[in-house]
Amino acid sequence: MKDVNVGVIGLGNVGSGALAILNTNAEQIAQKLGFRLRVAAVCSRSVASLNLPDVPVDALRTADWRDVVTHPEVDVVVELVGGTGVAKEMLDGAIANRKSIITANKELMALEGADIWDRAIKAGINLAMEASVAGGIPIHTVLREGISGDRIVAIAGILNGTSNYILTEMERRGDSFDQVLAEAQALGYAEADPTADVDGYDARSKLAILSALAFGERITPGDIFVEGIRRITAQDFDYAHQLGHTIRLVCSAQQTERGLMLSVRPALIPQSTILAGVKGAYNAVWVKGHFGADTFYYGRGAGPNPTGVAVVSDLMRVAREIRSGSPERVSPFAHERLGVYRPVSITQQHRPYYLRFRVDDRPGIIAELAGILASKRIGLEAVLQLPCDTKHDLPFVITVESTSELAIREATEQMSKLDFLREPPLALPMEPPL
């Protein structure tokens, strides 16, 4: 059977990983498919200076992505550039030239993926995006096919390996956020500008994609509540351990009677849960179905090999479709059409909360804080204070009974005006066992 020809745009870590897998695993891939995947073109701005041992000698090497999307022999375009600017032009160009698309672009797929799919299907081509979320975990396939017969009611997960590495190293060593971030940057786990990772925006894009697959709604990433990890300290882990918990950046999607509630935020989770054991740069996704109950998926969230496997697996699926000529394509969003997103404000969520304070110590502080909580009908659960060398920057924690996010926000806003506070209170939800 005739080969399926591939054009790869973007030769960074993921692109290089995918090319290495295609080359090294070529015979096994051909045995599985019944034909070969042939790299016909590669593109990078620095292609002239790159050593590309995994690219066939007769493949086109170019610095202009237009040469790839218009190449007469290319059947599938693999976009591994990222971002929402030129990457969108690349996908538009591929669709205009009737080339199927493989992408790892979480940001673009979260913002415009459903529209891009609509245009792709009208052009008679396919779109696959397994590598856009959770690297080595085939979570798209799980939601699109593996448990598609169920009705998903909730998702929770750790979807950003950089933040998870920082948090688990802070927990393990007792170092500060700034110390571990600098180390992560030196090791290549974090970008020079870590905003997307540590402030939760990367995870938000991923949650938007997974929620669209799971719940069949056209998610607007900007509607998702997001809070990052910059304010977490090593002392927060000490207090969390006293409570039998740890801290992770949790992506949460829950279907309620009023609509879909989505958030990305640091939260306390019980140490006894499987999610608490996810450490380092690993990702994990817990899915609760109405009929199938709990399932859990775990693996590396990034890296050239895990993400490269996802790219090549997508290539194999799309190549089969090209060769079989199937007129019925399964949407990468698992639903024929996405419905209207009905966001429910996170302010309506009810949870117990962890409140951490830093104060200039003086008599009456607890009574004043408890009075504010009582005025919002928030019940006090416990007060914790670990030994501290100074009274001028004294940390302590109050945990409260289950209450609404709105009540907590109103209480902490009022507390922030108190003159003994060194900084506004840190409020983290305490998630139930998963």
Task: Explain what the structure shows.
This protein is of the alpha/beta class and 434 residues long. It has 3 domains: 4-135 and 304-335, 3-Layer(aba) Sandwich (Rossmann fold), CATH 3.40.50; 139-300, Dihydrodipicolinate Reductase, domain 2 (2-Layer Sandwich); 347-429, ACT domain (Alpha-Beta Plaits). The chain has helices spanning 13-24, 26-33, 65-69, 86-96, 106-122, 139-146, 161-173, 177-187, 195-198, 201-215, 234-242, 304-324, 365-375, 405-415, and strands at residues 4-9, 37-43, 60-62, 76-79, 100-103, 127-128, 152-158, 217-218, 225-226, 245-255, 260-270, 282-289, 293-300, 339-340, 350-359, 380-384, 394-404, 426-429. The strands form 4 sheets. The protein has a 6-stranded parallel β-sheet, with helices on both faces. Strands 9-11-10-7-12-13 form a 6-stranded mixed β-sheet. Strands 16-17-15-18 form a 4-stranded antiparallel β-sheet, with helices on both faces. Strand 4 (76-79), helix 4 and strand 5 (100-103) form a beta-alpha-beta unit. The longest helix has 21 residues, at 304-324. It is elongated, with a radius of gyration of 24 Å. The model has no long low-confidence stretch (mean pLDDT 92).
